[in-house]
Amino acid sequence: MDTSNPAVFVNAELLRMHVGRRVRAVIQVLRSDGGGTVVGKSTDEQQLVIKGHPPGPLSTFVEVIGIADSNQSIRAEIWTNFGDTLDTASYNQVCQLANGDYKHLFI
Amino acid sequence: MYKNSQFDGNAAFSGGGFMPSQATQTADHSFSPAKNRDAQSLLPLTVKQISEAFQASDDKVNFLIDGVDVNNVKLLGMLYDKAERITDVSFVLDDGTGRIDCHRWVNEAVDTKEMELVLNGMYVKVHGHLKGFQGKKQLMIYSVRPVTDYNEIAYHFADCVYVHCHNTRLRKLQDAATAPTHMPNSAVNTTSKGFQSNPSNHFSVQYNMDGLKGIDKLVLDYLQQPPCLAQEKGVHRNELAQQLNLPEHKILEAIESLESEGLVYSTIDEYHYKSTANG
Known about the structure:
Chain A is mostly beta strands. Chain A has 2 helices and 6 strands. Chain A is globular and about 40 Å long. The relative contact order of chain A is 0.23. In chain B, helix 5 (214-223) packs across helix 8 (248-261).
């Protein structure tokens, strides 16, 4: 049992609080150039840049887990396709709960 | 008669944890984790919560989380380090809050088939029993399912937050209830005739308890009565002021603090409120 390397739920707003730490975020893919960056829209409707090479074709919604390297970008280690439909509002709410009153349940 | 049935409902469910009971007050019996084996609950948890659970006592096998007996748990996370052996499969579950070791005994073909479907790096939902072994906590898994609808992830964590809230609130009210059982009834009746709950459960307005102030508690109790819970549109602020015999600004303060705790919410407009507890 090991809680030493958690990945915090973030949206664009919360990303800035965790720069340099391991985070997880769901984005809606806007464009992906082959050169190692993907631009996406976070669950709170702001743009995020994801650096890294996705392991395969991406669906509309993707969850990335990695290190936040600036207020607006994440260096992704793990990419997970979340499909083409997702309730971003719920995920956004969970991000806010996980960073707010219920932080102690997560990190 | 209504009072008695309310009471029995509490006695049956108080040891369980997740099941929301109709009234949240238990006057005379003390809250002990050892009671009610029938009321075993399935708790959605994060690995972080499990890491903070502690063992109730040496002779009891179970852990306690938020004051509730932990028997069956459900978690959602990514599966790693899958190792298949002859009679069991072990893996690590990483849900973003931590990693925990899991074991699944495979006795039948059905079990093996289930385990074949899940691969490293997949999001899975597991149900199991929390066990302590040589100082470490481990999960004995009953079922593993791959996640197909990813909305389940947000749902699971929201569920964890909800159950945590529910159990800690239940515990606060029960701790408060067991504390001073000799509170005089006469000091207490700021509530007038619409009330059906047992007056000895109420505390005087000045008494400060764990977390919920006297007035907040009165407002919450009023809103949690079954007739109020049944009303779709909730209760008007003025009704609260009248029934509880309290000035409106006090009601307003109480509502604000309860709203920020997530215990009440406004319904059709900003004057009507309803408790978030289930009927």
